[in-house]
Amino acid sequence: MHGTTLYDCLQQGILIPTQAIADVDAALAHVEARGLHGHDVHGRNVMLHQGRGLIVDISDFLKPEPCRAWQDLRWAYHTIYWPLIAPLRLRIPSTLLDGVRRSYRLVRNLRKRGIPWGHRRHGDSGKPKDQQEGRQTSVSIGHQAADHR
Q1: What crossing angle do the helices spanning 18-33 and 69-76 adopt, rounded to 10°?
Q2: Residue 39 sits in which domain range?
Q3: Which residue did the predictor score with more confidence, 140 or 71?
Q4: How far, CA to CA in Å, does 113 sit from each of 16, 19, 23, 142?
Q5: Total number of domains in the chain
Q6: Mean of per-residue pLDDT scores for the chain
Q7: Nearest to residue 39, comparing CAs of 5, 72, 62?
Q8: Mean per-residue pLDDT for 86-92?
């Protein structure tokens, strides 16, 4: 198969166009409409070829459990890559990319264990319910008490 993985695009400073992300989104919608799951879709399993995005590993699409890998990658693309990295065409060293991958796996494992971590759903402030409703709570920090709203 011809093309460059999104991971390699980041290393080489190759621009990843929004069309490639939209292509993968469309492919995953097609797959999910047929009862399969877009499982394990990440930067090494997606290739860029002539400005288009291609999923190159579908071996896990029969797994029944949900996988957030693509949603998280898409979030990072729109939040970090497109506004900050793409305009400068930065090359990201493999050591940094691998560190991000390891950190992502740690966060993913924390999520699986029910420990809240990472970005929040739209409309979720991430605050405890009593704080969302405007009630005050007091938390002791060292010798000081801090009010949170």
Answers
A1: 160
A2: 4-116
A3: 71
A4: 33, 35, 32, 29
A5: 1
A6: 82
A7: 62
A8: 94
Say if pTM beats, i.e. exceeds, 0.85: no
Give the number of other Cβ atoms within 10 Å of residue 99's Cβ: 11
CATH classification of the domain holding 82: 1.10.510
| Cα distances (angstroms) measured from residue 21 to each of 7, 15, 55 | 13, 12, 10
- Whether residue 141 is contained in a domain is answered as no
Do the Cβ atoms of 127 and 121 come closer than 8 Å? Answer: no
- Hey, is 22 helix, strand or coil? helix
- Phi, psi for 148 (deg, rounded to 5): -125, 140
Q: Give pLDDT, residue 68.
A: 87
- CB-facing half-sphere around the CA of 142: CA atoms within 13 A: 1
* φ, ψ (nearest 5 deg) of residue 147: -90, 140
Q: Report the candidate in 28, 24, 44, 45 with the shortest Cα–Cα distance to residue 36.
A: 28
